[in-house]
Amino acid sequence: MASTLVDGGASHSRHNAKLAKRTAAWRPGILPFLIPLVILLFFSLWSYTPTDSPLAWLITIAWALPVPGVLVSVQGFILIRRRARKTHLMTPPAPVEQDFLIVLVPTIGRHDTYPALERSVLSYVEHLPKWFPYMRVDVLTEEGCEATERIDTLAASHPLIRVVTVPKAYQTKNGTRFKARANNYAHELRIDEGEALENVWVLHMDDDTGVGPDTAASLSQFINRQRRATPDEVKHMAQGILTYPRENAVSLFTWFADAIRPADDIARFRAFTGLGTPAAGVHGELLVLRASIEAEIGWDFGPKEIVEDARLALTFCRRYPGRSDWFNGRCYGASPANAKDFIKQRERWAWGLVALCFNRKVPLRYRWFLTICVTSWILGPLQHVGAILIMGWLIGDLNTSPVTQSVVVLWSISFAYVIWAYWEGLRLNAIASANGRRKWWEPFAVLLMLPLFSLLEGLGGFKGFLKFLRREENKFVVIAKPA
């Protein structure tokens, strides 16, 4: 008996050591934020020259807008650092014996998206069953899609894979289209099959986003934790980290540009979703939701909805405040193949998010923060000193100071956060890659290209905003997915 207890204690200690090491690697650094902040504060306060010109007022507005989002994001990565220090209190991952997991993978089913779909689906059946003995992978396709035969062949290769085909004639009550329509069909099917239950979880994934052993272990920890939670603490939704391994990237440039996304997950999404109310929205990858809750909300948001994940999150905020969480698991996606696809992707997101910000069906108290973030995104290029200098040179006013000196402090905080986000985001993507680390020159290259990244993000956002103003018909643009 004593020997068993010693062995068990040693095993638990080894687990804690491994967990601590893994968590430490993902713990966001604070110096990449503090060092730029000190430098920027010194420079901006030293160079400030009072002015009340029209350009100064434009600068004041553009530089003040990002502050609420930045402060929330800083809170998010501080929360992760605090959690990392409590690793020894975490429950070891264990197989989920009392719940059923359904991995839902919607795909447009084109030949240029199939290689990424195959990579992703095979990762689910390889890594998830160890922790989820009761599970299934549903590949959600449209009737008559290009790659039907290849998808059917993939499903036949493993007993856990099932193809769910949305009939062309299928229509929702509110006329919802695109991915939300497909998701709604799957949710209605689960209701018909008696799977819309409290102990059934739906893991929403994109068709280019895979998982690894760490994903499965972290997800099992979250779901098992809900079994032990009190009724006041239990959660119904959770989101993990989206990363981009180097080997999934076709373009080094877009891989650098997408460093911002995992940083957003450990900052802004961690703060809102992790504290129970996903008012900043969620992304459609590594989003786990109780089937019973999804059955109550559904996906029938109407024909103009193209950011169904963000709309779902805001509806969840209203119905289940305090019931969402964040978990330290990662999934593995792929950056757009080129700058053109990068802009096209951002354009669709902005188009849908702007429409959501103006959607009066969602109470203002749930969309005001998202509205600030989207506005700041669209005006992103104006927040960079280089863009302001060019604008000042064109109008003959080279004074780039805002109306009041306090705004330069806010700008310093915002710009320091942007530097932190790309620095840490690149680190997270590198950790998720096969070699597990950055090359020495890559962080500096990313920082040098920040003005260009800001321009591309802002261009995509502004094009989406223009399409909204023109009342153009919404289109769910799906870019080619790298294998």
From TrEMBL:
Question: Which SUPFAM superfamilies does the entry mention?
Answer: Nucleotide-diphospho-sugar transferases (SSF53448)
> Pfam families per the record?
Glyco_trans_2_3 (PF13632)
Organism per entry: Streptomyces sporangiiformans
Classification via InterPro entries = B_mannosylTrfase_Bre-3/Egh, Glyco_trans_2-like, Nucleotide-diphossugar_trans
Signal sequence span is: none
List the taxonomic lineage.
Bacteria, Bacillati, Actinomycetota, Actinomycetes, Kitasatosporales
Gene Ontology molecular function: any one: beta-1,4-mannosyltransferase activity
Q: Which UniProt keywords apply?
A: Membrane, Transferase, Transmembrane, Transmembrane helix
Give the protein name, as stated in the record: Glycosyltransferase
Domain annotation Glycosyltransferase 2-like: ranges: 201-415
